[in-house]
Amino acid sequence: MNPILSIAKRELRASFTSVTAYIVIALFLLIAGGLFWLEIFNAASTELSMRTFFTRAPFFLAFFAPAISMGLLAEEQRSKTLELLMTLPVTDMQVVIGKFLAALTLLAIVLGATLPYPISLASIGNLDWGPIIGGYVGLLFLGSAYLAVGVLVSSLTRDQMVAILVSFFCCFLLNTFGELASHTEGTVAEVLRFISTSGHFENVSRGVIDTRDLLYYFTIVLLSLSGASIVLSRRRW
Amino acid sequence: MSKAETTIEVRDLTKYYGDFQALRGISFDVHRGEIVGFLGPNGAGKSTTMKILTCYMAATTGTAKVMNIDVTTDSIAVRARIGYLPESVPLYDQMVVFDYLDHLAELRGVPSSKREAAVTHAVEVCGLGPVVAKKIDELSKGYRQRVGLAQALVHSPDVLILDEPTSGLDPNQIIDIRELIRSIGKEKTVLLSTHILQEIEVLCDRVILINGGTVVADGNFDELYAAHPAAERNLEKLFRLLTASNAPTPVAPKAAAPVDASKYLPPESNAAPSTESSES
Amino acid sequence: MTTELQTQRNRVAKTGLGNGLFLLILAGVAVMLNLVSTDLYGRLDLTGDHRFTLAPASKKLVSDLKSPVEVKVFLSSELPPPYDSIQRELSDLLSEFAANGDGNFRFTIVDPGASEEDKAKAANYGIRPVTVGEQSSEALSVREVFMGLAIVYQKPSGDVQEVIPQVFPGMNYEYELTRRIRKISSEAKVPTVGFVIGDGSFFDTIISEAAKQGGAEGQDPAAAVKTQLAGQLKSQLFDDLFSVEWVTLDQPVADTIDGLVLLGPTKDLGAAGAKNLDAFVMKGKGVAIFQSPYRTNTPDIGVIPGMPKFTVPEENKTGLEGIIESYGVTLNKDTLIDRKSPQVSVVEKVVAYMGNEPLKASVPTLDPRLPLMTNINRKSLLVPNVNLLAFMPADRATPLPISSLSRTAAASAAQTAGTLNITEVISSAETTVRRNNAMGLSVEDATEEKPDEVAGPFPVIVTIEGKLASSVGNGSTDKARLVIASNGDFISNVFNRNDPLADPRTLRGMPPALGQSVQEYRESAVNFLKNATEWLVSDADLIAIRGRGAVAYIDGSRLDSSKKFTMQAFNIVGIPILFSLAGLVAWQLRKGRRAALAARFKKAA
Question: pTM of this prediction?
């Protein structure tokens, strides 16, 4: 089997062996579900969509993604398994990608666990699936960006707590660049708005998949993962 | 011995950690069917050399070849032919022993059809049968060491590099492991480092003694004792003779021996041939 | 040694440099790609109605342009949410237009904040800054921003322009742009809406009341009022995209009229009126009839001068009910009552006696006679921006019953046959019941349950489309288009100075669940009138664009509280529990596997 898949498989299996992971995921589902479902029947006439869920999701992800990514490389360094991993016939980039894919799969599974939401909604009205699909695709892309940043941060430290805190910080920063942009002017604002994840997510969650947004997420993932791979290879000197 | 195929070839290896020079030009060969003891005081450069050979690190200058493949130019091919047990045994605590070995066999390129047999073989030769279904964090120190050894040989590599393979084992286990290494050494190449001199005597065909980053002695026991009659055919004495801090070091003119290496090391790296880290 | 040290340092530096350079090049390439992609991109519209893709009608419009169209957007940059989405949505849409325009469609987006020149240009088009609130870290500040656009059609004979002074998020930009470009680029005249007067309708009342105030010397005050009112309707209701004319039905309706609106008629049409209206429908043109089966009457007793007049409810016989019936919809003479979620009305009540004189006062009261119209058919094109309708009677002292509509047997048959389509647009809430012939029902009467009541919901506004035979035996049409509402007050109230909704006493008494502002009730009513009229006079292509982007709402009629609860319970608690259970199962499986593994090696050993 491809070493990337092998590493991803091991990592994923490790996640689903841990009781902590189940608790964190169950809590995430409880909170996300509660916020969405307690609110939706309250107003006199509520839009039949998952708009409120998708509006809040980037904020949730900024918490949840670092929790997934924190241990990926930091824990390998702490337990010295990284030394072994780096002497196996596997390139540094394969290690990084394998870890990243495991985290992304975990995220996809958790997001998949919220699929009963739109199915329930479809049972009570004429649901437009387009924005729903767009929303989920958007969340996966946004999650990829957050996770890739998390992998990079995780490669820089052997302390999981440091990793999660720094990743939080980075994700929130990425999320709030858009807000910052409204306080500045000109090119700086344009650049900030472009770097911000929120604007790109909004577009996808409307139900429009745009190559510009995909390219943006792809860029973040590529740069972060390359960065992580370089950090690992620096260890060899 | 020189007739046998050369499996490890090291030439003029030097290595700096920052400003600290850990290797000062090391050269040696190891051949198939040899068990070579890698000896030296802490900080002499044993672990560093091993890390270079296993492609964990790059040398500053010099070349190293394993199975005639250069470690820098084709590192992935080298890694596929090596089994490595680092000084601190690298284990995933939450994994079941069998799964751990299976995972490493997979990463080392054992095809899936042969993997189960390979893992079973490793389990049997390392005596892991009773704990094969246990989580690694439930294991005693001896078993952990054996699991580490099992992962190094699960893919039956041409070259086995073992950094203190018997540390933490009880006498029975030590004897078992030595048996194991001896039987592997008949067909493969084993390079092992240890501080137990007696182990070298019973296990190794040859000794490479390094000190201060240079090879101070290389040969089988007869050759060594012949060259250093002062050692009186005693390995311990030979060791003292060649590695005591006031002893002359042939290749290292400006060696100011006891340097605190740790302050030059990158903080994440446990690759330190540091004076504290070795015994564990 | 030093050379080796040097080598190491160089090497570290070189790899560092190499890595840095690699990342830099990678970042550079990525930025370049991203920059290139701002102009070169593809998109996949997943929405059910492809609302983010140009409609065929819009594509055809811009590709058939004879002279260039230039759209000048004056949009301040860095707008705070929710306005921040406008920039991209507009520029995406305009790019799509441009891509289909064969060079005849150009657009610019400028931020007039930067230069006085641009500000002056914007002002020239009548685009003025609007104030938006902006939440900064500390305080809520307000800011003047530009959010308007001008469309200039560069005809050889000179420029023609259309201006949208202020766009807003959620606006159907494509519809607004397409219909304006159509208006200025085509030679065809704008559609004309005829409002019927002389039928005792709401407009008659306004015109006659205003005329009583008198006008300038030598002018016909009624004519002046009519001109002014038509102008207001044209500009404020229809953004000058339709013209408005007054129509009387005593003579055939002119061919220039594209649609008719009858808002609360109370006088008999007569045979000629009925014939003229029917002939108009048979031409395939649209008619909206807002008529209640009841009306108020102030009988002229005329015996004792100076005695206060009183008002009584009576049946409203205009002759229209017969025409509607022949088209397939019965205007039921019934009363809808909602005891479970009554609205508040201000009822005239006797509060005390002064000697023998009853002393009356207006008291806010929970009134079951005012059902909420909560069932809005979101598939209808008439309601994309209609959220809340309440049918408040215009005359508080003599509130007329709210009645229902129903299909005739013939219409049901035609609907099954597929020749006629009667669509329920707005219906009352599930909690309404229907009582027959209860014209003068008091609040007290309505509060009591009666055995002959039937449970709702009941339609109050429907549309009729398809094949219709003349009600007077005068041919037939395949393209009939009618809007029938059992009440007109909910619209006329908005224009009325004595709007009961605007009465603060009504406001105060509103149940919190319906806490939406009065503004929303009024907006919904006005939007409904706008949509209905547009539907009557526009062609199908434009209507299709109009309907896109309509959001689906949760269909209340299919949800009872137990279903709601089950859904909430499953999705909030059920999913995490199932997830944890899956974990337990996986744990058991792992245990089993480990046991099997142990057994296997035990045997082997």
Answer: 0.72
